[in-house]
Amino acid sequence: MKNLNRWAAMVLAVVVAATTSAAFAKETPEQAAKEEKIRADIPLGGNFEPNPQEGVFVAAGHGLNVVASRDDGKTWEPVFSGYPGGDHGRWAVWNSVAYTDGVFAIAAGWGAPGTIIASDDGKNWRHLADGSRKPAKRNQKPYDMKTTMQMIGAEGAFIAPLQATPDFGKTWHEMSPYGFRDAEGNRVKVNNSHPSVGYTDGRVIVVGDAGPSVYSDDLGKTWVPMDVKVEPWGERGAKGILGKDGVFIIVKGDGSTVLRSTDRGMTWTAHDLGVKRPASRSFGLSIVNGEFWVTGENAKASADGITWRELPKSTPSGRIAVSDKGTLINVSRKRLSILRSEDGENWEEVYQYSKHPDAHGGAQGLADVAFGRVKRISN
């Protein structure tokens, strides 16, 4: 039986590898050149002028499909589009819409050159990097970023795993996952596979497939490997980390438990949660009115990460952002629309769009949304 299981696992691995290779093989040299021209035509950044005057929601999904609302989520308009894509490639967008101190930024790219665009008004977008950035590889361009599934904004910095800028793209701090050594001086590789990023009280934690992998106490300037065991961890699968008021929570697996830390991620305790993982496989983790919210087939909220209350059955799965007026906006990778609520119980559809005919390889719903105040634009 063991040999049979091993054989089945080998066959499955070959099938997955072949499928993945086939997906990437679809890109012709002509298509790659076309996509690279689109990236090259995006203006360079490094010259943002934050002026947080006007509240704006920004949401994004695969293809770097970006939409924004300037009227508290009532109406929406497209503000940027890269190229039709899916879960992999230059234009893949996951939980990577970030905001800090008057500037939005969105990271795209998974398994291909990464791109991070940014805006100080929510309408006009440029590379977050300027022309002076020197990438790790010699043949890379200044705007070739590390690919990531999540990026956050905190205290004026944009932070992704092992990559951060404290000044809206003028300066970059970057490390390699192979650039760490143990106490004996041996090289150590950190596991940042399918990363999720959380922040609270000055600490950033990156969670990979095997658990918490690295932390930073200087907004991503330097990183330290985490030798931390988290139980129960279980199988590789969708996960997320969220931080608030000195508390980190991790949700993964089937959603029966939540993992919680109050000592900056060094020890974790398990608590009952009871949120069923959604069809998209990714739980929606958000901070709403000072509470942790976890959405899936059902949804729950908690102020402390220990005691969880059931949210209304109408609460949609996906990511939720809240405006300074208390309005909630929800997006989901499995739905081609945006939902709005003023009370957290009654939701209305305020925006709908169609899948691009050339999009392939993944759900085309908007993956992430954020609210922030930016520069007012003239009509």
Automatic annotation (TrEMBL):
Q: Which InterPro entries match?
A: WD40/YVTN_repeat-like_dom_sf (IPR015943)
Which keywords appear in this protein's UniProt record, sorted alphabetically?
Signal
Q: Which residues form the signal peptide?
A: 1-25
Q: Does the keyword field hold Cell membrane? A: no
Gene3D superfamilies this protein is in?
A: YVTN repeat-like/Quinoprotein amine dehydrogenase
CDD domains given in the database record: Sialidase_non-viral (cd15482)
Name of the protein in its database record? Ycf48-like protein
Gene (name only): hcf136
